[in-house]
């Protein structure tokens, strides 16, 4: 075992596999069937998501990267030295832009990445330690909810929780509210919340971003079934389901579904679950909501989070907001 005094990684797992799968049982026994989006992200799913980020159609990552490149130093000036907590850190590629900005100002670097996928968190932690000689990393492998509950006091005078990439879009409005209340509980007065939000834009841009020509998003969506097979001894046949993605213009959200190509029976042995699918029946696997800056700012304010500044790109496709409690 390699011991690095600048690295600590903790893992918080759900206690027993059945308890961990309660949300799967709940979702798959509903009509229409649904599954929580967090099941996309086993190590393979996280790699597929990295591939999505590089797709020509997937504007989200590229656009947010540009905003960070333009304004990371402004963010660092506004917050001063702070511990950077990141929810859904993944490969931490965009975070490097922030770390560069804080390093440039000579601030101490404390990074607390949180991700549900341990492989990608560990790998990116080692690579960050090599590239940032003063960086301290305390990683947590778990869901956001569990990690936020386990946060200790910040080692620096302030903390900034980063939630970039518009993962907020995966949460339904009521889940958003619960999430914001957990964020506030993990902050002290004066601390910061950095939120990246994907904004309203034409369907003609949105739909290809979630149904790319190379079929990577389709693989990403189908990988959820492979992940469930692995976790719960399931027998989903990935050949018998098809990726669907479309923009729901009424609710301003992309919906992703998996469509059963024929009538079939699927078993998840560890969950004692037998499922019947009719031909054409769908499982709803993700929503990706698109926001309006003003509306989010108002919601954040309801939780005591005051917007200090919002940055955007030339097309106003994405908003990056810095809020303070
Ligand atoms: C990681 C949740 C931000 O909603 O755009 C990408 C996930 N799903 N393509 C998004 C995703 C399909 C992504 N987030």
From TrEMBL:
Keywords: Methyltransferase, Transferase. InterPro entries: EgtD, EgtD_Methyltrsf_superfamily, MeTrfase_dom, MeTrfase_EgtD-like, SAM-dependent_MTases_sf. One of its GO terms (biological process) is methylation. Residues 22-324 form the Histidine-specific methyltransferase SAM-dependent domain. Signal peptide: none annotated. It comes from the Bacteria. It is an enzyme of class 2 (transferase). SUPFAM superfamilies: S-adenosyl-L-methionine-dependent methyltransferases (SSF53335). Pfam families: Methyltransf_33. The keyword Iron does not apply. GO terms for molecular function: L-histidine N(alpha)-methyltransferase activity. Its EC number is 2.1.1.44. The keyword Transferase applies. This is Histidine-specific methyltransferase EgtD.
């Amino acid at each position: 075992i390699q011991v690095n005094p600048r690295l600590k990684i903790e893992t918080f797992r759900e206690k027993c596999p059945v308890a961990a799968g309660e949300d799967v049982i709940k979702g798959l026994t509903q009509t229409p069937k649904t599954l929580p989006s967090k099941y996309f992200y086993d190590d393979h799913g996280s790699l597929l998501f990295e591939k999505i980020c590089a797709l020509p159609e997937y504007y989200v990552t590229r656009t947010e990267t540009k905003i960070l490149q333009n304004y990371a130093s402004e963010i660092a000036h506004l917050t001063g030295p702070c511990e950077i907590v990141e929810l859904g850190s993944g490969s931490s590629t965009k975070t490097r832009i922030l770390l560069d900005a804080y390093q440039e100002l000579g601030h101490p670097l404390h990074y607390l990445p949180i991700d549900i996928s341990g492989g990608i968190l560990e790998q990116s932690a080692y690579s960050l330690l090599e590239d940032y000689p003063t960086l301290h990393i305390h990683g947590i492998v778990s869901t956001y909810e569990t990690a936020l509950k386990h946060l200790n006091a910040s080692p620096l005078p302030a903390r900034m929780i980063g939630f970039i990439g518009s993962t907020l879009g995966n949460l339904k409005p009521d889940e958003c509210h619960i999430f914001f209340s957990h964020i506030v509980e993990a902050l002290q007065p004066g601390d910061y919340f950095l939120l990246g939000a994907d904004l309203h834009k034409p369907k003609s841009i949105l739909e290809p971003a979630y149904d790319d020509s190379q079929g990577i998003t389709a693989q990403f969506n189908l990988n959820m079934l492979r992940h469930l097979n692995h976790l719960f001894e399931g027998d989903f046949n990935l050949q018998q389901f098809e990726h669907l993605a479309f923009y729901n213009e009424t609710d301003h959200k992309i919906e992703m579904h998996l469509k059963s190509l024929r009538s079939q029976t699927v078993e998840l042995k560890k969950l004692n679950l037998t499922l019947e699918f009719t031909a054409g029946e769908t499982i709803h696997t993700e929503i990706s909501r698109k926001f309006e800056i003003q509306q989010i700012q108002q919601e954040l304010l309801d939780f005591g989070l005051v917007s200090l500044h919002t940055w955007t790109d030339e097309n106003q496709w994405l908003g990056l907001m810095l809020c303070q409690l």
